[in-house]
Amino acid sequence: MKVPSLLKIGICAVGVAAMLLAIGCSSGGSRKLPRISVYSTAYLTNDNQIVYATHTGTKPVPREDWSWTGDGVLGSPSIVIDLGTQTATFYKGDTEVGRAPVSTGRESHQTPAGNYQILEKNKNHVSNLYGDFVDDAGNVVVANVSSVGDKRPAGASFRGAPMPYFMRIAGGVGLHAGYLPGYPASHGCIRLPRGAAQRFFENAPAGTPVRVVD
User: Which domain does 4 fall in, by range?
Assistant: First the structure.
């Protein structure tokens, strides 16, 4: 039986897609499927965790494996961010009282190592650099944009990404609640699970030392 040309094209497309998927997912292959950007429209889960919509529309699962034992513990606060292990550790004096996973700057926007201190705190901070272009009704026209580097469509306005419990340590870099995909993915900031970000925020006054190590 003669197969119609359009059906042949469809079958070929499915076959090629399956082959590429197999290459990307193979544990022994060196090629991987490209990561989906996590810089997109922010929204809250039922437990008030900030997460970001992806291009596929799939809701990511936020990490929540953080700990806090610092209530009632005395001692000067300090924070250590380990870029290698992607963890944040909160100390009071010499005692570790908090630990949380983080997502720091991706390759093109790496979080700089060094010794810093908390310069500014804002519980309801909104980015003035990264977010979405939206229409008058608040619908996203273009997601994942820079307010200074991307052209704004006619009739659209810029809406900055929410950065709850923001604590600035240098320039536009700070700690805040955000989505953790399991690897460095931010524009330079240090994302924490929302609960951990809140505890760190409440226990770290301005001037608290923050050490970022490789």
Answer: 1-34
Per-residue confidence (pLDDT) for residue 46, from 0 to 100:
44
Contact between 157 and 100 under an 8 Å Cβ cutoff? The reply is no
Lookup: tokens for 9: 């094209």
pTM of the model: 0.67
Domain count, the chain: 2
88-125 as b/e: b if 16+ CB within 10 A: bbbbbeeeebbbbbbbbbbeebebeeeebbbeebeeeb
Q: Are 120 and 206 in contact (CB under 8 A)?
A: yes
- Which among 90, 109, 93, 61 has a CA at the least distance from the CA of 197? 90
Residue type, 78: S
Structure token digits, residue 61? 């699962």
Of 103 and 17, the structure prediction assigns the larger pLDDT to 103
**Same domain, yes or no: 102 and 24:** no
12 and 50, same domain (yes or no):
no
Tokens of 76: 């000067």
Query: Alpha helices of the chain — where are they, by DSSP H?
Result: 5-25, 194-203
CA–CA distance, 107 with 185 (Å, rounded to integer): 8
Taking alpha carbons only, the member of 70, 66, 38, 69 closest to residue 54 is 38
